[in-house]
Automatic annotation (TrEMBL):
Active site annotation, chain numbering: E123 (nucleophile), E127 (proton donor)
EC number: 2.4.1.207
GO BP term (any one): cell wall biogenesis
Glycosites: N131
Gene Ontology CC, one term: apoplast
Changes after translation: Contains at least one intrachain disulfide bond essential for its enzymatic activity.
Organism in which the protein naturally occurs: Kalanchoe fedtschenkoi
GO molecular function: hydrolase activity, hydrolyzing O-glycosyl compounds; xyloglucan:xyloglucosyl transferase activity
Keywords per UniProt: Apoplast, Cell wall, Cell wall biogenesis/degradation, Disulfide bond, Glycoprotein, Glycosidase, Hydrolase, Secreted, Transferase
Protein name (Swiss-Prot/TrEMBL): Xyloglucan endotransglucosylase/hydrolase
Domain GH16: 30-237
Lineage: Eukaryota, Viridiplantae, Streptophyta, Embryophyta, Tracheophyta
Pfam families assigned to the protein according to its UniProt record, in alphabetical order: Glyco_hydro_16, XET_C
Top-level taxon in the UniProt lineage: Eukaryota
CDD domains: GH16_XET
Length: 313
């Protein structure tokens, strides 16, 4: 079994799958310094500054606001809003505290993800699909490699994500990507390049977040629209932390993957979960996972993607 610990510490297109997902849902710490190994400089990055030092608003500037270690995203009928990290990363641990839009959030999408640029981009997603009052959010995860996604897994939260802030962490190293919520792993995507399965390990990615209008697909396949009487819709984020390798260009591909002590994410301890962590993940997946592309043979005309036949855990 190949799983991961996190480091100790105190907008994609979905229309193509909206209808089939709706049917399945019932309608519903090191601070890195420069070091030199074999004459090559390895550069690590620790983003431990306040959000106002480590992120900036990319769109909807008249809506979004940054104050100290707090980011507020706003959506109304005129615009949504978004922000991204100033640094670009390849491997490490990315975390954020997020408190989602309360009340009737149907049609809204709060996104938190890593992404490179261009049509052949890599991307690691966590998106929160709003719902009508009384119905749970849907936590939508996906991974893109060379511009191709279609690897969705979805979960109902086991808590109220609007009542308080919760920690959402993406742990990414040369061996696998692991999604965590409040230190509980919910999903693993393993590196099977040797089996012909693409893996995001050659493009630096920035951390991005946004709140936007996804009413054409997000809630019950687009059948439930945004009730604009509830606007403005507000998502709040705190404490962005990036304990990761800073991307400086193509040379970072080898540098950030090198199994040296400074690249803590490559250490053996981050290739295994404890028995209790594995049990936690299996428990969440058995009770709260509502969609898994690896079980949707109809979607792939009876031929599941190759990684679906390989051990992810």
């Amino acid at each position: 079994m190949l799983l991961f610990h996190t480091k100790p510490h105190n907008s994609p297109t979905h229309k193509s799958i909206a209808s089939l997902l709706a049917s399945r849902m019932g309608g519903s710490h090191a601070l890195f310094t420069a070091l030199f190994i074999a004459g090559v400089a390895f550069h690590g990055s620790l983003v431990h500054a306040r959000i106002d030092k480590s992120m900036y608003i990319t769109w909807g500037a008249h809506h979004a606001s940054i104050s100290g270690d707090n980011l507020q995203l706003v959506l109304d009928q005129t615009s949504g809003s978004g922000a991204r990290s100033k640094k670009t990363f390849l491997f490490g641990s990315i975390e954020m505290l997020i408190k989602l839009v309360p009340g009737n959030s149907a049609g809204t999408v709060t996104a938190y993800y890593l992404s490179s640029a261009g049509s052949a981009h890599d991307e690691i997603d966590i998106e929160f699909l709003g719902n009508i009052s009384g119905d749970p959010y849907i936590i939508h995860t996906n991974i893109y490699t060379q511009g191709v996604g279609n690897r969705e897994q979805q979960f109902y939260p086991w808590f109220d994500p609007t009542a308080d802030f919760h920690n959402y962490t993406i742990h990414w190293n040369p061996t696998a990507v692991v999604w965590y919520i409040d230190s509980i792993p919910i999903r693993v995507y393993r590196n099977y390049e040797g089996n012909g399965v693409p893996y995001p390990n050659k493009q630096g990615m920035r951390v991005q977040t946004s709140l936007w209008n996804g009413e054409d697909w997000a809630t019950r396949g687009g059948r439930v629209k945004i009730d604009w009487k509830g606007a403005p819709f507000i998502a709040r984020l705190q404490r962005f932390r990036g304990r990761a390798c800073g991307w400086t260009g193509a040379e970072s591909i080898a540098q950030c993957a090198a199994p040296v002590p400074e690249n803590w994410w490559t250490a053996p301890v981050y290739k295994q979960l404890s028995a209790s962590q594995l049990s936690q993940m299996q428990g969440i997946r058995s009770t709260n996972m509502i969609y898994d592309y690896c079980t949707d043979s109809n979607r792939f005309n009876g031929k599941l993607p190759p990684e679906c036949h390989l051990n992810q855990y």
